[in-house]
Amino acid sequence: MPKSIFSSKKGSVSKVINAKIKEMQEDYLADKRPWVIGYSGGKDSTVITQLTWMAVEQLEPAKRHKPVYIVTTDTMVENPVVAIWVENSINKINMAAKNRDLPISAHLVKPDLKDRFWVQLLGRGYPSPRRGFRWCTDRLKIRPSTNFIKSRVSKYGDVILLLGVRSSESAARSASIEKHRKKLSDKFQPHNDLKNCYISSPIVDWSQDDVWQFLHKYPNPWDHSNQELQALYAAGSEDNECPVVVDTSTPSCGSSRFGCWVCTLVTQDKSMSAMIQNDQDKEWMLPLLKIRDSLDFKSDEDRKKDKESREFVRMNGKVAFYKNKEENIDVVHGPYTFEKRTELLEKILSAEVQIQSQFDQEGKGQNISLIDKEELEEIRRIWIEDKKEIEDVLPKIYKKIKGKNYEGKSYRTASILDEGNLNLLQTLCGDNRREYELVRNMLVQEMKLKSKGIRRGFIDELENELSRFTYIEKQEVLKAASDRQGLIETIELTAINDYEGVKI
């Protein structure tokens, strides 16, 4: 366990904190570079925000010469309990800062619509993230905050980014921090990817116990209870305890990790499971846990089902190969099938109805939304325009689950072939979904161009569709690979788990 900064050699807690505040004030007054705080609502970022607040507030008003931006990213799939907590905190920060005339403002940023989790997974069919296909982190977390920082760099030239990183969090974090310490002598370390952005880590040497000790001793200045924060961590711990650690034998709740409730990059959502187990009032999250678990797989049988739920070709119709455990050539499966995407949409909407109904019955007034109208409309657009799924099933699913009409855009494309003709086509094609999709897409292209009174580009469009459907069945691909073994062997094969070799 790392040594506490509040040890007897350093003096009292107050002396240590006063020295830290003085240090941060000197840094604040040293230049005109605005500060940006990466805020998650967790313990470490709360400490950074409180220290900054205390440092700025204790300055004479005339010396509060530059802005402090507090930025947090809402991935739109955060643990709902944590998301509500953070949003309330953001609102309180802005209100308190305004009332006290502080140059502090809090900002809640979100991913672009095209990058949101459900738009990618349900719309485009991206399979749930894995280590080898971690498409979520950059889109949901990094880009929104990065864009915010870039906008401030554009305005001010340089910015200082304050982070609540601590070397005691993990061995990897400690090694990374030490690496940069050896390489950089400047107090503010240049960001690896963001030009004119410099990083400051004021609590890098703090232990977890130091963090909790500070939060207990110093009340939250924007009136967002630190005791409630500790209770939140306690609820997310398996033992439902969050003690102040006094020696190495005392457990702590610092291992509680709150993140996206759909995350499949971890083996289990321990914090949500613990919340449900520890608090009867949080049992409403059970449907979320079930959806998350349905996106994950832990056995060979689950892996097989996952492969069956995904296309054997990529979105552009191309095929990627890899060598399986038996050293045989197999195809890398691509996006989720139409059936899987519609099935997942029904599950999400059903869970949302169940949760909202429970809150209504209990009079709690919580309107938990798992997927918003904007996302639904973008998913629908992708299905109709990009995937040419003119059946336009999303409004039908919505009405089936929600019990009310879907209010959205009117798509002319969706009515090119009426339901009767589409049903007839499905009957003629039997169980072969790809054969049906090929004929349907070609008819759609024909009728779209005909309605516009032009023929230019028709052949090119048909060729594009035919190229996407070169292979109707997976067996055709494998046979072609077997027949051209010599050619296939020249392809760079991915010698890893088939799921983790996903190419979309």
Question: How does this model look, in words?
Answer:
There is one protein chain. The protein has helices at 13-30, 43-57, 80-99, 117-124, 136-156, 171-183, 208-217, 226-235, 270-278, 286-295, 300-308, 338-362, 373-386, 394-402, 419-429, 433-452, 458-468, 474-483, 485-488, and strands at 35-38, 68-73, 104-109, 159-162, 189-190, 197-200, 321-323, 329-331. By secondary structure, the protein is of the alpha/beta class. It has 3 domains: 8-235, Rossmann fold (3-Layer(aba) Sandwich), CATH 3.40.50.620; 270-305, no CATH class; 306-501, no CATH class. β7 and β8 (329-331) form a beta hairpin. The protein starts with 12 loop residues before the first helix and ends in a 16-residue tail after the last helix. The relative contact order is 0.10. The model is unreliable at 170-177, 180-185, 239-255 and 486-504 (pLDDT under 50).
Keywords for this entry:
alpha/beta, about 500 residues, six-stranded mixed beta sheet, Rossmann fold, 3 domains, elongated, disordered C terminus, two-stranded antiparallel sheet
- Which percent band covers the strand fraction? 5-15%
Radius of gyration: 27 Å
CATH superfamily of the largest domain: HUPs
Q: How many structural domains are formed by the residues?
A: 3
CATH architecture of the largest domain: 3-Layer(aba) Sandwich
The poorly predicted ranges are 170-177, 180-185, 239-255, 486-504
CATH topology of the largest domain: Rossmann fold
Helix content: 40-55%
* Basic shape: elongated
Derived from helix and strand composition plus strand pairing, the structural class reads: alpha/beta
Largest sheet strand order: 3-2-1-4-6-5
Give the number of helices: 19
Major sheet attributes: 6 strands, mixed
State the total count of DSSP E strands.
8
Secondary-structure element series: HEHEHEHHEHEEHHHHHEEHHHHHHHH
Please report the first level of CATH classification, the CATH class of the largest domain: Alpha Beta
Termini separation? 44 Å
Average pLDDT, rounded to a whole number, is 83
